[in-house]
Fold this protein.
Amino acid sequence: MASLWSCDTPCVFSVWCTSAFDAVSSDGITALPNGNYVVLSSGWSNGTVTSAGATTWGNGTTGTGGIVSTINSLTGSVTGDFGNRNSDQVSNLAVIGLSNGNYIVPSGIWDNSGLVDTGKVRVVTPQNIYFNNGLVQTMSFNPSTISTTLALGTNIILQASNDLTLDAGTDIIVSGSNGGVLTLQAGRNLTLNSSIFTANGNFNAIAGDPNAIAADREAGTPTITLGAGATINAGSGHVILAAIGGNFVNNTGSVTPIIANRWLVYSTDPRLNSLNGMLVDAKHYGTDFTGVTPTYAGTGNWFFYSVTPVLTITPNSQGGTPADFGLTITGFIDGDTTDSSGITGLARFGIDNFTGAIGQYNVAYLTGLFSRLGYVFVDNTVSVDELTVIPAIPTATPETPATANTQPAVDQVLLISQISSLEESILFLPWENEKSAKDDKEDLLDVKNDGIKLPIVILDDPFNVGCKNPQADAVMVKQAWTQTIPNSMKAFLNISNLAN
């Protein structure tokens, strides 16, 4: 766990002790190649642990002031961690400066838990704290030192395997206009309860960092929280907040807590966040934090979510043919709609064992739809037999008046296929009963081989022709047939053509 806090001590360019025999700087001061320096104090006491030792980094340009502590120094945890003095009071604590500004602190008698004098060599980065620094320790850092370092254009990385917190009242205010990049990385939670002003430097904050040391990380969902009154102002810089596998909470009381050229917030699921009205330009699902901004998000402020929500497509048929398919879309989250989700494309369906015959068929969505927000589409497998093919209703054909020579032919095969049993019974209504209809049908079809000729038979006059002897006035009867019998009845009677 790491915590940032402000120091109430007057700012003077010196370091001093708080306990007798701390002997701050008694082991010397080592100048680093870049002009900075390290103060060596093997006799410094870490609380009740005497002679734990400390090395304190100092800024060669602005100076460094304050009490030697775990805040501003690399410190030992047990007596003799950083060496001790021999009988001649000569210390074996030494520092070796490196060309990049870092320095090495060797300690041959450092204890590794219960193993005595195992020794350790530490590479110290003055402005950075990494996951493997201060294992199983709670560390604090002076925000004014961080601000001063960033103002020089120097980048700072602070890592904590568990939680990292910017306490209330510890604002990081970087002077000037060319601040360095500030990166905060926590293995679990990252909480900002104060303001950060980077002087146009980029600001990165990561919770749930996978590089944290697992043994130091406590259980819990990673969360980035902007506390009451907290603000982030990066000016022309960029801001990235990433809660990997976790959530984002805006408790600042502001809908615009971040000011930057652009900002990006990564989390798992919008339904698990607390935005409290925070405004954003755009969002996208199915996007994990990788350290590389997606190409489609070239401008603007974005929320990215690792969850990939699923929209369910339920096909249906209104008219009984594949051409009449409609669809219903369900499964929207975070207040999205069909329009706001930017759904485009042409849905493609598959029909199981479709023959075109009357009956029901299962229809499944296959592909073809896309969403600007990153939704994916699947078929509603619970819904089955969505397509029902019904008998086609014959199209009424206007009767053509009889001519001197011909009567239009009737496609009896087509029409017979369209006559249902119900329709047949309706067409037979003019006859008194089924037997009478059968007899009349047989009589009517008694056609001579030498041409179409109406039979000599007395009918029950089912169509109200007005005569009882068709032979006496054959022309009249034939005209009555052509003008009275529906086409579908002609087809049922197998009469394909009736000439005058």
The first helix runs from residue 143 to 151. The helical segments are 143-151, 412-417, 421-427, 434-444, 474-484, 487-492. Residues 1-17, 85-91, 406-437, 443-500 have pLDDT under 50 and may be disordered. The chain has four domains: 1-126, 127-307, 310-389, 412-492.
